[in-house]
Specification:
The chain is an alpha/beta fold and 265 residues long. The protein has helices at residues 14-24, 53-59, 69-81, 97-105, 121-127, 144-147, 154-161, 177-180, 186-195, 246-257, and strands at 5-10, 31-37, 62-65, 85-88, 111-113, 135-142, 167-173, 201-207, 214-222, 225-233. The strands form two sheets. It has a five-stranded parallel β-sheet, with helices on both faces. Strands 7-8-6-9-10 form a five-stranded mixed β-sheet. Strand 9 and strand 10 form a beta hairpin. It is globular. It starts with a strand and ends in an 8-residue tail after the last helix. Keywords: NAD, NADP, Oxidoreductase, Pyridine nucleotide biosynthesis.
């Protein structure tokens, strides 16, 4: 009989609640929720003991990060150095190349990433083995209110708030964009992880008042082929910056790490 993975969930928000509740309900064969880490007192809201991060490292062999890029930066290496595996939902943290190098070199714990709100990343990762992708474009379209950031000037904010159609908010590389939209552009970093190059991935962020679905379009091409993936998700009602599907992508990743048979890898 295989060993049951002892899982700790960091962050009890839109993603962590669904992931943790599913684990507590026994919905992931081979994995159990043993603790929750959050910077707010959760009381009876959590279905497992709430503990400090240091204690979670002693209790768990797998940590699920569902609390934002700051947690990956502050704790990622310590999790891996303790021998605990880490499943990262906030892949935007990996646009910090120095952090990415340290995490990928750390151990003995292993680091994994979820594709989150998009598919096709497994195919892009396979295709890059044939040779570099010459051009990779990602266009992300969301409701204007979910894209507002403290650094925006009044002119841009006014353009977004009064838009009657799509408005380009920013364009740049996957190195630049996730730092500007830390809660809204993990997809850009995930595409870059799959492609293997932050600067190859060109990103457009679009605000659209009619974007009842969050839309991501990935277009990639190289000497060996061309690829196009388009997804449209309902935003999470509790956190519209996140698509509803993201926690279920995390759960799929957990099932694979727990050894569930029949998984597409």
């Amino acid at each position: 009989m295989s060993t049951v993975r002892k899982v700790g969930v960091v962050g009890w928000g839109a993603i962590g609640r669904i992931v943790g509740t599913a684990l507590a309900d026994g919905q992931v064969d081979g994995a159990e929720l043993v603790c929750v880490v959050d910077n707010r007192p959760l009381g009876d809201a959590a279905p497992a003991p709430q503990v400090p991060f240091e204690e979670a490292l002693e209790l768990c062999d797998l940590i699920v990060e569902a609390a934002g890029q700051g947690v990956v930066r502050e704790w990622g290496e310590r999790v891996l150095a303790s021998g605990t595996d880490l499943l990262v939902a906030s892949s935007g943290a990996m646009t910090d190349e120095e952090l990415a190098k340290r995490l990928l070199a750390a151990g003995p714990g292993r680091v994994y990433f979820t594709g989150g709100a998009v598919g096709g990343l497994d195919l892009l990762q396979a295709a890059r083995s044939l040779g570099p992708l010459d051009e990779v474009r990602l266009t992300t379209t969301k409701l204007p209110s979910t894209l507002e950031q403290p650094w925006m000037d009044e002119e841009l904010l006014a353009r977004m708030r009064t838009a009657t159609g799509p408005v380009e908010v920013m364009a740049g590389t996957a190195r630049e964009i996730p730092a500007k939209f830390p809660k809204s552009t993990n997809v850009a970093a995930s595409v870059a992880l799959a492609v293997g190059d932050l600067d190859t991935v060109r990103v457009r962020v679009v605000a659209d008042p009619a974007a009842h679905h969050t839309r991501h379009v990935i277009e990639a091409s190289g000497a060996h082929g061309a690829y196009r993936f388009e997804v449209a998700h309902l935003p999470d009602p509790g956190n519209p910056a996140t698509s509803q599907v993201v926690p279920y992508a995390v759960l799929r990743g957990l099932a694979a790490l727990a050894g569930r048979t029949g998984q597409i890898l």
